[in-house]
Amino acid sequence: MNVLGIETSCDETGVAIYNTEKGLVSHCLYSQVPVHAEYGGVVPELASRDHIRKLTPLIRQCLSDGGVRPFDIDGIAYTAGPGLIGPLMVGATIARSLAMAWKVPAVGVHHMEGHLLAPLLDKDPPEFPFVALLISGGHTLLVQAERAGQYRIIGETLDDAAGEAFDKTASLLGLGYPGGPALSKLAERGNPEHYRFPRPMTDRPGLDFSFSGLKTYARNMLASTDQSARANIARAFQDAVADTFSIKCRRAMRQTGYKRLVVAGGVSANTGIRSKLQNMAQKEGIRVYYPRLEFCTDNGAMIAFAGHQRLREGQQEGLAINVRPRWPLDEIRPIGD
Ligand code: KG4
Ligand code: ZN
To answer: How far is the CA of 270 from the centre of ligand 2 (A)?
Structure first.
């Protein structure tokens, strides 16, 4: 079965083809970052227009890269939420229209399930059950994943998402959009001993997060020092986020008794966070799985893969084009019985 996957929830246009026997056949990505960079964040209307411009050529390219003809496609998966309503509508409308024209089923995928399943695209994938730490620009979730399609949220952020905290702090430090990768680069030059930020909510029980205070902390610190301290502040911020994840993940692993931890979403590309999680995992005797680097941030491959799991089970949408800009992960349809 060949599944065409389409991701348009935010500022990346992602397209991929996943085949039941061969795995990932082809994938293409177009990033809108230069479009939004001058505004310091994603402009939803510009994002929608750019998805309209780029999606069809990208689908053509993906088909030709994979040597797949339109009539070889057996189903289409698209991100139905959560995300920006305009961009979601573009993906859903094109996906649904192609499905109707090609007379194949279409299925709406939850973006965060895409992130959660992304490590399963790898050669040595994690088996269920596992705990997933999903850290992206819009979400920060700790998920108890019993099996594919069955997810219990055991922790989440009470305010900013991790990626959002990175982006806002990066902006305070005068770094461009999106700030996560730039902040991480600056942090490499920082002295870890110079400043110490708090590890929010680690002094009380539970698995929830709060990141908005860290950005305020960075702002106050920046006001009381000069620009030369930027790298040290970046380092202290990143270490605080990394330690917080490490402490909460250790708690989640002990609470569930699971031995596998999946870390996915854009922020999981961060090497500082990865190394702290690795230290914790070694001590706890657990194993951490990541998507390959290019599938940490938004992409079509994870949507093709997640949609494939559902289409294979016969799931499909009706003809109506529905998207859900807000869509709790634990409200999705289960896969299988
Ligand atoms: O998963 P993603 O591509 O999009 C959403 O679903 O939101 O995540 C994007 C987020 C942005 O906030 C970006 O700054 C952050 O991931 N990010 C990083 C790194 N790479 C991307 N944050 C920290 N370190 C990185 N290396
Ligand atoms: Zn994402």
So the answer is: 15
